[in-house]
Amino acid sequence: MTTEATSKMTLLRDLEPVVEANLNRHLATAKEWFPHEYVPWSQGSDFDGVLGGQAWESSQSKLSEVARTSLIVNLLTEDNLPSYHHEIASFFGRDGAWGTWVHRWTAEEGRHSVAIRDYLLTTRAVDPIALERARMRHMAVGFASEYGVDVIDSIAYVAFQELATRVAHRNTGRISGDPVCEQLLVRVAQDENLHMLFYRNLLTAAFELAPNAAMRAICEVVKSFQMPGHTIENFTRKSAQIAMAGIYDLRIHHDEVLTPILRQLRVNERDTLSDDGERARDELSTFLASLDKAATRFTERRQVSRQRANARAAPA
Ligand SMILES: [Fe+2]
Ligand SMILES: [Fe+2]
Fold it and tell me: How many angstroms separate the alpha carbon of residue 313 from the centre of ligand 1?
C-alpha cells in the first residue's frame, strides 16, 4: 500500500469516533419532514401526452425567468445524487459510523430533488420536457470529485459545498415571489445546514489531528472551489444570471460561505502550524483578499448595469 493510501486509512480510522459522535448529534437534531406536505397538489393538472391533458406553456409559470433558472440549477444539482453517493461511499466507505452517515446523508438528500421536482411540475413553473431532457444529459455526465484520495480535501469541499447549497436554496426561495416555493426551499436549506455542521465539525477534528495538512487542504479547496452543479449544460451563463439576481455571487460566496467556516475553524488563530501549513495560510489569505476585491468589482458593475436598465425602463 502506498504511504498516501496508508495515511488515508489512518485518518479515516482516527476520525471515526468524531463521525460517530456527530452522527448521533445529527440524528438527535434532524427533524423528520415530508416532501409531500410542501407541494401545492391542488394547483396541479394532467399534462398532454399519455393522459391527454394540457401542454405546458411558458405563460403558465408564475415565476420570473431567473427564479426558474435558479430552481432548475438547484434541482439538477440535487438530481446528481447517485454520483455524489458513489463518490462519498467509495471514499469514506460503507462500514461503521462512516457508512451509516453516508447512507443517512444520501437518504436525506434524496428528498430534495423529490420535493423540488414535485413543486415545479405541480405549479407548471418550468417546461417539463426540457427539464427531463436536461436531467438526462446532466446525470449522464455524472459528478467526479476533484480531490482524489485526500481525506481532508474531500471533507473541506463538502463543508463549503453544503453551506453554498444552503445559501443557494435559501436565496432562490426568497426571490421566487411564491411563499409556497420559499417555504419548501427554507426546509431544504435547513437540511443543508445540518450537513454543513457535520462536515465542519469533522474538518475541525482533522485540523486538530493534522494541522499543516488541514491548512493546505483548506487553502487548495477554497482556491479551486466550484459549485457541485458546475457540469450542468450552460452553467456559466446560468450562474451569471443567478449572480446578477443576487442569489449567489462572489460577495455571497466570500462573506456567507467561506468567511463563516474559516472563522469557525479559527484558521487565523491556529498556532500549531509550521512550514507548509504557514505557507498555505498565507496563500489562503492572499487569495481571499483578491476574491474580496473581485466581489466588490462585481457588485459595483452590477449596480451600474441595474441603474442603466432602470433608466432604459423609465418613461422618457
Ligand atoms: Fe441537497
Ligand atoms: Fe446537503
Answer: 38
